[in-house]
Amino acid sequence: MRASRASRFMLPLAFAFLHLLPSTNGVRPAPRHSAPSVGRRGALAAAGALAGGCLAQHAAELPSDSLDPSSWPLDASQWTSYDPRRALLYDTRAGSFLPADPRRLIATALQKRSLQTEAVAAAASADGGAAEARVLFAAEARANPMHHAAQLEMIKAVHRLDERPLAIGMQMFWRQHQPALDQFVYGDGSFSQLLRATNWDTSWGYDFNQYAKILAYARKHQLQVVGLSPPTGLVRLVAARGLEATIQTRVPLPEMDLTNREHFQRYVAGVAAAGGGRGGLTQAGLLRGYQALTLDDEYMAESIARYLAYQPNRVLPAGEGSAPLAASPVSSPSPAPARTGSCRMVALMETRHVRGRVGVPNRLTRRIGEPTFSMIPQSVAWATTGLPAIERPLDGKEADWVLYTQSEIHLAKGARSPPVPDTPRLSYDFQRSAKPIQI
């Protein structure tokens, strides 16, 4: 029974490795379109043989009564270096692992996504075709360079699909930073000026080098970079004093849904995982934190919707209706290229805002009536066999694609089992009291 369960997950991995393993002469196998046809039975036989070989190898390396991934011998090199071979995409709809190459896979994935979603059929276009997802989310754990590399590959993949306009939405910048972002892409292209104009060290603060290639690609190809986030001060105000405190600021807030039970449960689970329940977090503090998280999600969804709906031949506004927080240190450059209703966006943000789709994706769908596509990363340990040491992959409820990569080097060393899945983490300061709350 245990062997059959493992085989069920090894078989899709075997299909992936048919495209990843080198041939005997050191040359990678020919692309699928040029490979000779061997028929369904031949392909299944080859994949089955490879899966059987992997299982046989595990059986030789592990105790005969153990197929537990947490006991697999781990690849020690993951503790000292990053290797693109320690990355696989899991297609949750197809139930199979694939090479981590969005450029080869994204067109087919989008087509299948549009055909398999009932919501898309209801929102069919005027010519009778299904609406394709125009917004693709590429999530990240902020310190993992393999996630940022995958984000760039996703951007390149979508950019090369056709001639439709593409923008890059980034949680790392505020909506009010738009003039500085336009100045970078269409103006001087100065990284140092962008860092100063957006107060990077205080507004985001993480290693800018992780995002430099993405921004350079945007400038080279004149792709508008769109700031998505609310100002940090606004989020901190809500976390500390609640939504009522924003009345005094006279800053209009986005339409907010605070009734999504699954969204709230994921938030509470994240607080507990981050240790929030051990320090005496109050009920009021917990709810304020949830209001702040929801504000973050709704604001970013609204920012994306504004981009998709805004009239062409004009620069995206920096912060209409939010003058107290919208001041920008640079003037707006010449207008960005015109865009139409067919434009696309690849939106980059933390996994907690994307996983399960209850954060930003579904809140965007509520606004625009269109489906979205999401890719979330999972940092896990890798076995010496070249496979992720996981018992089973995440399912389609979490995302369309799950990108399995090795963990950040400073976290991977000595790990004997996959790290805890990426769940929401505390991002705000909570007021604590003597009365703890049970989570």
Automatic annotation (TrEMBL):
Residues 130-315 form the Haem-binding uptake Tiki superfamily ChaN domain. InterPro entries: Cofac_haem-bd_dom. It comes from the Eukaryota. Residues 1-26 form the signal peptide. Keywords: Signal. SUPFAM superfamilies: EreA/ChaN-like (SSF159501). Pfam families: Cofac_haem_bdg. This is Haem-binding uptake Tiki superfamily ChaN domain-containing protein. The lineage of its organism: Eukaryota, Haptista, Haptophyta, Prymnesiophyceae, Prymnesiales.
